[in-house]
Specification:
The chain has 16 helices and 26 strands. The strands form seven sheets. Strands 11-12-13-14-15 form a five-stranded mixed β-sheet, with helices on both faces. The radius of gyration is 23 Å and the shape is globular. Strand 9, helix 7 and strand 10 form a beta-alpha-beta unit. The chain is α/β, with parallel strands linked by helices and 536 residues long. The termini are far apart. The longest helix is centred in the N-terminal third of the chain and has 18 residues. Among the domains are: 209 residues, Rossmann fold (3-Layer(aba) Sandwich); 103 residues, GMP Synthetase, Chain A, domain 3. The structure holds adenosine monophosphate.
Length: 536
């Protein structure tokens, strides 16, 4: 059954169940279904049946879920854009994706310039649909894109990864099975702030154990593909998605209180977010008594983080998963046990069914076990390519032979090796892509946008790492066209302010240094090594 049918089945059998909670707001499956039906008809009335994407702008509001489903139930993939994006980047994604419709759950920033129709989506959770033409809608077909997620691109423009409905279903089937293998932590009805929910036979956990439905934590913004794991695993199984918004994350007190009232049973986040929570001594099983599973993805899971979680949550499993947006969130998994904690780095797991991991050398030849090379992912969750970018698609996607069958594959740009047991070990990047607090950033994306800042002639950006190899911040270096006016701090502040108009905050270097000249390598590129030597 595909995702939309699965959500429809929950709505039909257990419409009162809570699908989503966010800041005291709560959306039932019945509301999600009826709101998205009405929006789908409105979108079908607005757009030709051409599969063009619909941009959905907002943060963690329940209306976001209604808008996502409304678009796909009208056979249009959605592009989630978070409120952290500046106007310039929003405009360029609307433009480059050729979206003709934007559903604005929050008001678009005033600087967004677009010819697309903008529908007010702020009332969608209450089924308030903007007035206009409607038409009978039909949902996306299995081989059509279901969503398009934009990730940092080295040109300075993000690139849109298209994920089909069948790739999403294949991923969700597997990710849900990860959640089902855990040991259930007995539930006490009084623990749940919203009380037990009735079983409807949709969720295996619910029907077999008379436990209330799971509550999945949503930490990542919907514009980051990690959120696909919690969003669709929750909705496909009739569970509740509990969203934590950006303002709560930056306030330790609010975060603690929010978690205390969440009743979360499945945790999905970046390891960075878990580290942030671990800084709170009260973050343990007494805060989250029903938490039985941690699912991590998106960046290296430090051994110390996994060890601390196992200590503070002795009944919960810690699972490391690995994968890029281009292959639908994650394709490998491993339950971290005591046997892994002795090693300096943790493995990232074995391939899920339907996925083959290949390790290739520079010439593209397959490498045997234990030999490091580039990780290729082949299988049933690989993207159909970057939206309207056949050039980039041709460079990153290919077909490989898997047991005699030509199978879509993605060249990850990640280094790694498979051990003799088929366990994958991650060994860093082959290019300038980094992860900072879980966010994927191409250093060249930041550099190209720095070059757009008034007076900047040349720019180079370094990822500064701590002794464990984790990126702690970015350090930018700029060469100006004319000598700066003002002291270094004032100049850096002014440059950063202008850069914020082009890239989200997390891509703005913490440190910015003006240099007389950016050193160049023999082939004319910024010499990051020389700058690194200067930085340390
Ligand atoms: P994204 O598309 O944002 O999910 O980023 C994908 C990239 O994040 C991968 O290509 C890896 O470089 C990195 N990544 C994902 N999962 C892991 C993991 N478990 N350990 C280390 N790096 C990871």
């Amino acid at each position: 059954m595909d995702i939309i049918d699965r959500i429809g089945a929950v709505a039909a059998r257990a419409g009162d169940r809570v699908a989503h909670r966010h800041l005291g707001e709560s959306l039932s499956y019945a509301q999600l279904w009826s709101g998205s039906s009405a929006l789908a008809a409105r979108i079908a009335g607005e757009l030709p049946d051409d599969g063009s994407p619909v941009v959905v702008y907002g943060h963690k509001e329940s209306a976001m879920l209604v808008a996502f489903l409304g678009a796909v139930r009208a056979a249009h993939p959605y592009i989630p854009i978070d409120v952290s994006w500046p106007a310039d980047r929003i405009s360029s994604v609307i433009d480059e994706s050729r979206a003709r419709l934007v559903v604005a759950v929050r008001t678009l920033p005033s600087g967004v310039s677009t010819a697309a129709t903008v529908l007010d989506g702020s009332g969608l959770a209450a089924s308030t649909i903007p007035p206009g033409p409607t038409r009978q809608a039909h949902p996306v077909a299995p081989d059509d894109p279901y969503y398009v997620i934009y990730t940092s691109g080295s040109t300075g423009h993000p690139k849109g990864v298209q994920i089909t409905s069948s790739a999403l279903s294949n991923f969700v089937d597997w990710a849900v099975s990860l959640a089902e293998i855990r040991v259930l932590i007995p539930h006490r009805a009084s623990d749940a702030p919203h009380g037990p929910q009735s079983s409807d036979g949709v969720s295996k956990r619910g029907s077999a154990t008379a436990e209330p439905a799971d509550v999945w934590l949503n930490q990542a913004p919907f514009s980051f593909d990690l959120s696909v794991m919690d969003l669709y695993c929750a909705l496909a199984t009739g569970a509740t998605l509990h969203s934590i918004d950006a303002a709560t994350v930056v306030s330790p007190r609010r975060l603690h209180d929010e978690l205390a009232s969440s009743d979360v049973s499945v945790w999905v986040s970046t390891p960075s977010f878990a580290d942030l929570c671990l800084a709170d001594p009260g973050f343990d099983a007494s805060l989250l008594p029903r938490l039985g599973l941690f699912l991590f993805c998106g960046e290296t899971l430090p051994t110390a983080t996994a060890a601390a979680l196992r200590e503070r949550f002795p009944d919960a499993q810690v699972v490391n998963t690995y994968g890029p947006t281009e292959s639908t969130v994650a394709v490998t998994s491993v339950v971290i046990g005591p046997e892994h904690l002795a090693a300096a780095t943790l493995p990232v797991g074995r391939a899920k069914p339907g996925t083959t991991i290949l390790i290739r050398d520079e010439s593209g030849a397959a490498l045997p076990a234990n030999q490091p090379g580039e990780i290729l992912i082949a299988g049933d969750t690989v993207s159909v390519g970057y939206l309207h970018r056949p050039d980039l698609t041709a460079g990153a996607f290919t077909l490989v032979d898997v047991d005699g069958v030509p199978t879509p594959a993605y060249r990850t740009g990640d280094l790694g090796h498979l051990d003799a047991d088929g366990m994958l070990h991650f060994g860093g990047r082959l290019d300038g892509q980094i992860k900072l607090h879980g966010y994927r950033i191409e250093l060249e994306d930041v550099e190209n946008n720095l070059r757009r800042v008034t007076g900047v002639q040349q720019a180079a950006v370094l990822a500064v790492r701590n002794e464990s190899g984790v990126v702690t911040h970015l350090h930018g270096f700029v060469q100006l066209a004319s000598p700066p006016e003002g002291g270094p701090l004032a100049v850096a502040t002014a440059l950063k302010k202008e850069l914020r108009a082009y890239v989200p905050d997390y891509m703005v270097p913490k440190l910015l240094t003006v240099v007389d000249r950016i050193p160049l390598t023999g082939n004319g590129k910024a010499d990051r090594r020389a700058l690194l030597a200067r930085d340390t």
